[in-house]
Amino acid sequence: MLHTLNFGSKEIVYTILYTKRKTLGITVNPDMGIVVKAPVESSFELIEAKVRKRAPWIIKQLNFFLTFYPKPNDKKYVTGESHFYLGKQYRIEIIEDKKNEVHYKGRYIQINTKNKNKAKELLNDWYRIKAKEKFQAIAEPIIEKFKKYNVEPTGIYIQEMKTRWGSCTPEGKIILNPELVKTPKGCIEYVIIHELCHLVHHNHTQKFFDLQTKENPLWERWKKKLEEFG
């Protein structure tokens, strides 16, 4: 059952999980879910008071995870429209042709296609190819640096995600959203380093942020740029 608490202009929606624990704990998950784990004898009034007290921290965590939420794509995929690649803006040019292919030249991304309605599909396929190529190249030297912490991902994978820029599985797979290839290289490095830090420290503890700062001193700048991107 979901419970709602209003804190200023913010609405905090959370789930209560009663367990055989002695203290009450609050977890904010990357999917923006908020779980309150409480001792079985806890009253709702006590839980609500705890959530209200921790509201500033909860909102801070929610805002942090919003970094990994790409903005909706409202592009029309017509000639002259602006699209990003590695942080730079390009105009797309759609040309009717006997073959389907995409390449960029100067400040243009040219989409040759038999059917103009396929422009979006062709461009997204091109982005996926470029993402696979660029992410691997950017990740390799960073992964090498992280070997000193006795960690190494099992692989870098590309997967469309509506609400995340990247994630790390318990098995050590680092999954990156192909949309990330539209952002500057520094943003890509930030997400990769963030996920690699999770191989060392699974949760967002102070040790996690200390490590992230050590390996990427300017991470807050790139986090902000990612939040504003699009």
TrEMBL record:
Listed InterPro entries:
UTP_pyrophosphatase-like, YgjP-like_metallopeptidase
According to the lineage, what is the superkingdom? Answer: Bacteria
Pfam families, per the entry: YgjP-like
Annotated YgjP-like metallopeptidase domain ranges read 22-228
Task: Quote the protein name from its UniProt record.
Answer: M48 family peptidase
